[in-house]
Specification:
Length: 314
C-alpha cells in the first residue's frame, strides 16, 4: 500500500514538472507557430545587429566606423610609434592631438629633437596668423578658422575667448619649449635640494645632461614623488611639456584666458576645441570634430574638477 502511494505521488510530481516546462515563455513562442512577425524576422544574431533601438554602445560602434579599431587606427599615415619610455608616456598624456581631423596635419611623431626639425615641419603645413586682443598668434588654418568662429559666437553670448600668455598662447618653436621646461626644472631642483630629497651634486649632474637624458631623469624622480610642477605637487607634464613634445608646436593648441567660465568651454567644444592635457586648465586642443565623435577616435573622457579631458584610450 505504502509502495503504491509512493508511486502515485511520484507520477503526480513528474507531471507537475513537465507542465511547468510547457509554460515557459520559450515553449510558448515556439508553439505559437510561424504566424507572428517575430518568427519571420532574421536569425537572432542578425536581428540584434540590425535593431535600431539597441543599447547605446551598439549604436556608437555602429555609427562610428573607427570605434572598434581605437586610437592606433586613427593615427595619421606614416606616424612613428614611440618605442622608448618617454615617447610612450607622452603619447599617452598628450596624444589626443595626433587623431585631430578636419583636414589639419598632426605631427608625424611624438618628440621633435631640435629647432630645425620643428621649423621644417611647421613650414610645411597650412597656417594663418591673426591678432586677437593685441596678441599675434599662429595656428593651422582650419584651427584658426574654428577659433575665430568660436570667438565670434562668444562675443554674441557676452563672454570672451582671449589668448593667455600673448603670442605664446598658440604656436611655439623648439627653443620656446626648452625655455618653458627649464623654467620648471631649475626651481624644482633647487626646491628638492633644499628639502634634502636630492643632493646639490645630483642636481648639478641633472642640469648638465642632454635634453633627452634630462627628461628621463626628471620622470624617474617623479616616480618617487619628487615632482616638478609649479607647486611641486604633481608631474611637470601638467605644467610644461618636455622640450619638443608640446602640442603648441603642432599649431593645434591654444591657451585661453577665461578657461574657468563653463560657457567659454562649451563654445570652444562646439567648434572642435577640447581639453586634452589632464590638469592643464587653460590649454585647449583643436580636434576638428564634434564631441560625439571623440570616443570613435579612440579617446576616453577623464573628468576632474568639473572639467572633461579627452585622452588616448591606450
Ligand atoms: Zn597650452
Amino acid at each position: 500500500m505504502k509502495l503504491l502511494k509512493f508511486i502515485l505521488q511520484s507520477v503526480v510530481l513528474l507531471s507537475a514538472f513537465s507542465l511547468a516546462g510547457c509554460w515557459s515563455p520559450t515553449a510558448m513562442d515556439s508553439s505559437s507557430g510561424s504566424a507572428t512577425p517575430r518568427d519571420s524576422s532574421p536569425t537572432p544574431e542578425r536581428s540584434s545587429n540590425d535593431k535600431p533601438n539597441n543599447d547605446n554602445k551598439m549604436i556608437d560602434s555602429k555609427n562610428t566606423v573607427d570605434a572598434a579599431d581605437g586610437f592606433a587606427a586613427n593615427l595619421p599615415a606614416g606616424f612613428t610609434m614611440p618605442t622608448d619610455a618617454v615617447g610612450k608616456k607622452m603619447l599617452k598624456e598628450y596624444g589626443a592631438i595626433f587623431v585631430a581631423k578636419d583636414g589639419v596635419t598632426p605631427p608625424p611623431k611624438v618628440v621633435f629633437n631640435n629647432e630645425s626639425e620643428v621649423s621644417a615641419w611647421q613650414s610645411g603645413v597650412s597656417k594663418s596668423t591673426e591678432t586677437i586682443d593685441g596678441a599675434t598668434i599662429e595656428l593651422q588654418s582650419n584651427a584658426m578658422k574654428a577659433l575665430k568662429d568660436a570667438i565670434a559666437e562668444a562675443n554674441q553670448s557676452g563672454v570672451k575667448i582671449a589668448a593667455r600668455g600673448g603670442s605664446d598662447a598658440a604656436r611655439r618653436d623648439y627653443s620656446g619649449t626648452v625655455k618653458n621646461w627649464n623654467s620648471r626644472v631649475e626651481p624644482g631642483l633647487k626646491h628638492w635640494v633644499r628639502k634634502g630629497k636630492i643632493t646639490q651634486s645630483e642636481a648639478n649632474r641633472i642640469k648638465g645632461l642632454s635634453i633627452p637624458e634630462q627628461i628621463t631623469e626628471i620622470f624617474k624622480l617623479e616616480e618617487q614623488r619628487i615632482y616638478f610642477s609649479i607647486d611641486f605637487s604633481k608631474s611637470i607634464i601638467y605644467s610644461v611639456a618636455p622640450p619638443g613634445t608640446s602640442q603648441h608646436i603642432s599649431m593645434l593648441a591654444f591657451d585661453v584666458q577665461d578657461h574657468a567660465n563653463p560657457k567659454v568651454r562649451e563654445i570652444l567644444e562646439k567648434h572642435g576645441w577640447f581639453q586634452t592635457v589632464f590638469s592643464d586648465l587653460p590649454h585647449f586642443t583643436y580636434l576638428g570634430v564634434t564631441k560625439d565623435k571623440l570616443s570613435g577616435l579612440g579617446l576616453k573622457k577623464v573628468s576632474d574638477g568639473g572639467r572633461e579631458f579627452w585622452m588616448p584610450d591606450i
